[in-house]
Design brief:
A hairpin with a 2-residue loop joins strand 9 and strand 10. The strands form two sheets. Strands 6-7-8-3-9-10 form a six-stranded mixed beta sheet, with helices on both faces. It has a four-stranded antiparallel beta sheet with strand order 2-1-4-5, covered by helices on one side. It is α/β, with parallel strands linked by helices. The chain has one domain: 3-Layer(aba) Sandwich (Rossmann fold). The structure holds adenosine-5'-diphosphate and magnesium ion. The site of adenosine-5'-diphosphate has 11 residues, from strand 2 and helix 1.
């Protein structure tokens, strides 16, 4: 049984149709990378999986269970966690306090069990030296680590990452890749949306390109990046006019070289 199964999912905002008839299957242990132009519906898809938005039509099965209409808090306890581009820690609280909030309220743990989950997430993300540091005092890369650790403290089975590399320098991106690799090798299934394509291809077992709510290509990362459909989407974009798309294009050529 797949860990996640999405069937005929549609999402409309008023008259704007963001996703329609969307199907996706994610097996346990996969790292699914998602790319696609701005406005493609990538973040909307993650919101529907995480439960912060509800679909107009369709079904979402998690571990065989229909979670389509369940609230985000319920899904968090079943094992779906999300990390966002802009970390949202409680800035006045320490790293450890933030992780305890997550293991307790998102993870549904108490007492010692909540502490263990928080400590493991902190150690796993290399934040052990910052346990007592207020989250607001961390540099950006460590806030990113905390953002992922916060999700991990809820001991998820499925981790959703929405452009967490945003704002990092090229030199910092490999550290993030290592973090995600560590998460994946601990047995957590990952869906990672990212503009920094080389970060994705370094860990993704599968890649999906989304445009206007439709799957343009899906499969082995190399094959997807070199598919005529994906190339046509990015080749038409002037890298000077759109730096993010240009980034993809450049990486794509490197990748294909
Ligand atoms: N809450 C919302 N209300 C109205 N329109 C939205 C909302 N969220 C997203 N959209 C629109 O849905 C489309 C897809 O957005 P999004 O999923 O954020 O794309 P992506 O993450 O791929 O850039 C965009 O046109 C966006 O403006
Ligand atoms: Mg987005």
């Amino acid at each position: 049984m797949p860990l996640l199964e999405i069937q005929s999912l549609s999402k409309k905002f008023g008259r704007l149709s963001v996703l329609s008839g969307f199907d996706l299957t994610v097996e346990a242990g996969e790292v699914l990378g998602i790319i696609g132009p701005n406005g493609a519906g990538k973040s909307t898809l993650l919101s529907l999986i995480g439960g912060s938005a509800l679909p107009t039509e369709g079904r979402i099965l998690f571990d065989g269970e229909d979670v389509t209409r369940r609230p985000a808090s319920w899904r968090a306890r079943r094992g779906i966690a999300t990390s966002y581009q802009v970390p949202r820690p409680f800035t006045g609280m320490t790293v450890m306090e933030n992780l305890l909030v997550s293991s307790t309220f998102a993870g549904g743990r108490r007492g010692r069990s909540a502490h263990v989950a928080a400590l493991e997430a902190m150690g796993g993300m290399g934040l052990g030296n910052y346990a007592n540091t207020p989250a607001g005092d961390l540099r950006l890369l460590d806030r990113k680590r905390l953002e992922v650790a916060r999700a991990l403290a809820a001991t998820p089975r499925l981790l959703l990452l929405d452009e967490i590399a945003g704002g990092l320098t090229e030199a910092e991106v490999p550290e993030l890749v290592d973090m995600v690799r560590a998460v994946a090798s601990s047995g957590v299934t990952v869906i990672w949306i990212e503009h920094v394509v080389h970060a994705l291809t370094a860990v993704a077992t599968k890649l999906l390109c989304l445009t206007y709510g439709k799957i343009l290509a899906e499969g082995d990362p190399e094959t997807v990046l070199n598919s005529p459909e994906v190339l046509s989407v990015y080749l038409g974009i002037d890298p000077e006019a759109d730096s993010e798309a240009g980034h993809i294009q450049n990486r794509e050529f490197e990748h294909g070289a």
